[in-house]
Amino acid sequence: MKLKVLFLVITLLGIGLQAEELTVPETAVIPAAAPAGEAAKLKDGNALLDSLLTLFENLPPVEKKGPEGGDKVTKGGLAEVDNRLSQLARDAKAALEAGLIDKIFFFRYKRMLTIYKMVITPVIKNELLENPFMKTFEDFVWDTTYERWKWDDKDSIAKMAAAMEEEFVQMKIYLDSRQKREELKMKIGRRILPPPPPPPGKKKPEAKQPE
User: Fold this and answer.
1) Within a domain: residue 78?
2) Dihedral (C-alpha) 49, 51, 54, 55: value to the nearest 10 degrees?
3) What are phi and psi of 193, to 5 degrees?
4) Which of 9-13, 89-93, 111-115 has the lowest average pLDDT?
């Protein structure tokens, strides 16, 4: 039951973020060489984040035949969400290989896709997948908002939604501050590290004693 509620919260979270009108530059989607006649495109970091905001939009109902002679059974579009997540994973890898994003953004984005994937995957109490799922959720919330997360807590869904929102915002800021970060790295250089030790066998000059 909680997984269904969490899925709903994350869907609403995506709608809320989109309402803030995060703009994507015109250069966000860059045409690439089209393989086998396909109109393949490379997405930069902003376009990849923007795709998360539309993850649950325009989901077609999936119709499956019911018992013989019965009516068709219409189910939700979680299969389409799963397909979109897989495509975004491929898009992120292509963007990394093309140099449009760096490894830091790539692995943080991939982690977000994993969280979404787990949210839409039904897990029953005491199943084999329960412990890995819960551990991944706990680590994600702690790494993002430094909140202790447990599935049985009454505020677990709110904490997960807050962590996903925070990570999205941080990744957006990470992209927007790229030039500033490079400037700071140049300024800091090796000053952040302790001085290297003297070469082996070379003694430090002794301080002169006052006469």
Assistant:
1) yes
2) -100
3) -100, 155
4) 9-13
Token pair in block for residue 64: 């499956």
In a domain, 198, yes or no: no
Q: Which helix (H) or strand (E) holds 62?
A: strand 62-64
From first CA to last CA, the distance across the chain in angstroms is: 84
Look at the chain and report how many structural domains it folds into: 1
- Residue 193 corresponds to which tokens in the numbers above? 């590290």
Which residues are CB-contacts of 75 (< 8 A; sequence separation ≥ 6)?
A: 61, 62, 63, 64
Residues with Cβ within 8 Å of residue 40, at least 6 apart in sequence: 32, 33, 34
Rounded Cα distance, 158 and 85, in Å:
23
d(CA 115, CA 13): 14
Neighbours of 85 (CB within 10 A): 18
Q: Residues 149-199: pLDDT tens digits? A: 998 889 999 999 999 999 999 999 999 999 999 999 888 887 888 888 888
Give CA 65 to chain center in angstroms: 36
Tell me: pLDDT of 66 over 90.
Answer: no
Q: Is residue 200 part of a domain?
A: no
How much is the mean pLDDT over the chain?
A: 78
